[in-house]
Design a protein that fits this description.
By secondary structure, the protein is mainly alpha-helical. The protein has 3 domains: 122 residues, 3-Layer(aba) Sandwich (Rossmann fold); 111 residues, Serine Threonine Protein Phosphatase 5, Tetratricopeptide repeat (Alpha Horseshoe); 171 residues, Orthogonal Bundle (DNA Cyclobutane Dipyrimidine Photolyase, subunit A, domain 3).
């Protein structure tokens, strides 16, 4: 028999349970047809960095499956049944997609396939969303108890990498869609081997210090695995298994970050509307600024020209690397929502356009956490002070200087407050576009209004 393996966010061969299922369904004399479908509803709204990275991952995957990867464009509910008929497949295998769109799409594909089963094996998460619940079966709403139960739940052992898969070559493939040039954005190397390399290097060189350096954007102390995890070039279970014998605080802290990823996917699974709406119902009434002034401030934020060095450095890292350090993501998101009073959804959309790791669950819930609208929200009265955050987490100004060349010669003492430097703000760098103390007051007032309703 022939089995179709429909790749989505699982662009690897190692630790891939759906691949093992497809091979088994094909049997000793059958063949596996690997396919990727460019779905216009996902491809169209994806930012360019994600499109380019995905194409690069597919090029890598294509080489690993002996050139057998079949690429097609169109609605999967039409493309897959056509392909099933063309190759005479008896089953279609996938890793489950638990996001709101993916669930609907897969249900439509399942209906369109009729008697040919869509077999879901595994998911992009260490524990499939929906599986970790309180003892009464209801979902967790707060991270810490979720993380405890998640650890106790445990995860399956990594699946072995199959040595020989009978890939079916010779099935017609289409050219992938084109991606316009990326104007100097430096993307990470794509694919499964690049992901393993990144993990091996992080584990050997930076994991030990992770707990203490993960908050210092200037020190590059984190793994930079997010884009690989997003596209499934590596599975989190592989990483967790590799950490099994490590009992250090840093390994624990890294496991905790993977738990956040699973937690946000779990929240999205239970509350799919959280992709668009605040989880905290009271926050529907929150007043945000709109109109030309808000647009102008948004544009200054987006270009990295707010006059607050750590904010500008973060926004420029986003444009330069399609990535931002986690601490800085919190600072720039807080600045947009609490200093510029712009709706978090506008910022979240901008991130999704520019991040190579842009992910609906982690991004929207990360923004909701900052905006104080999420399940596990940062308390609304906690307003990040961009100057203090800069001084605390980038004390020597290394990160700011890397991304804001105008501030290269400002001494560390003033690098987060260049307006206080004896020589004044360097030419070409803006003065702060708003006064943080004043905007903090305005933000608190607005939060208090909605919370008292
Ligand atoms: P590491 O510190 O090495 O962490 C390892 C892995 O754990 C990450 O690759 C990621 O998969 C996961 N992880 C770490 N922190 C978080 C977190 N807070 N929430 C969920 N997962 C986490 N992450 C995304 O993958 N995609 C996004 O679109 C995204 N948007 C964000 C938006 C905002 C406003 C905020 C505050 C955070 C966002 N994050 C997002 C989470 C986090 O910033 C990134 O995962 C992290 O910076 C990636 O760098 P790293 O791989 O070096 O992380």
């Amino acid at each position: 028999p022939t089995a179709l393996l429909w790749f989505r966010r699982d662009l690897r061969l190692a630790d891939h349970p759906a691949l093992l299922d497809a091979r088994e369904a094909a049997g000793p004399d059958g063949a596996v047809v690997p396919v990727f479908v460019f779905d216009p509803r996902l491809w169209g709204p994806s930012g360019l960095p994600r499109r380019q990275f995905l194409l690069d991952c597919l090029a890598d995957l294509g080489a690993q499956v002996d050139g057998a990867l079949v690429m097609r464009s169109g609605d999967p509910a039409r493309v897959l049944p056509d392909l099933v008929r063309e190759v005479g497949a008896g089953s279609v295998h996938v890793s489950a997609d638990t996001g709101p769109y993916g669930r609907e799409r897969d249900a439509a594909v399942e209906r369109a396939l009729g008697d040919v089963p869509l077999v879901r094996t595994g998911s992009p998460y260490a524990v499939t969303p929906g599986r970790v619940t309180k003892s009464d079966g209801t979902p967790f709403r707060v991270f810490s108890p979720f993380a405890r139960a998640w650890r106790e739940h445990g995860w399956r052992d990594p699946a072995p990498r199959p040595d020989a898969v009978p890939w079916s070559t010779g099935v017609r493939s289409e050219d992938p869609p084109e991606v316009p040039g990326l104007d100097g954005v430096r993307l990470p190397p794509a694919g499964e081997a690049a992901a393993s390399d990144a993990w091996r290097r992080f584990r050997a060189e930076r994991l030990e210090g992770y707990k203490s350096t993960r908050n210092t954007p200037g020190s590059d102390g984190t793994s930079r695995l997010s884009a690989y995890l997003k596209y499934g070039c590596v599975h989190p279970r592989t990483l967790l298994a590799d950490l099994e014998d490590l009992d250090s605080d840093s390994a624990d802290s890294f496991r905790n970050e993977l738990a956040w990823r699973d937690f946000y996917a779990d929240v999205l699974w239970h509350r799919p509307e959280s992709a668009r709406e605040p989880l905290d119902e009271r926050m529907h009434a929150m007043a945000y600024d709109t109109g030309p002034d808000a647009d102008e401030r948004f544009a200054a934020w987006a270009r990295g020209r707010t006059g607050y060095p750590i904010v500008d450095a973060g926004m420029r890292q986003l444009l330069g690397e399609a990535y931002v350090h986690n601490r800085v993501r919190m600072i720039i998101a807080s600045f947009l929502v609490k200093d510029l009073h712009v709706d978090w959804r506008r910022g979240a959309r901008y991130f999704m356009q520019h991040l190579v790791d842009g992910d609906l669950a982690s991004n929207n819930h990360g923004w909701q956490w900052v905006a104080g609208t999420g399940t596990d929200a940062s308390p609304y009265y906690r307003v990040f002070n961009p100057t203090r955050q800069g001084r605390e987490f980038d004390p020597d100004g290394d990160y700011v200087r890397r991304w804001v060349p105008e501030l290269r010669d400002v001494p560390a003492r003033h690098v987060h407050e260049p307006w206080l430097a004896p020589d004044g703000v360097p030419d070409g760098y803006p003065l702060p576009i708003v006064d943080h103390a004043e905007e903090r007051r305005v933000a608190l007032e607005r939060y208090e209004q909605v919370r008292d309703r």
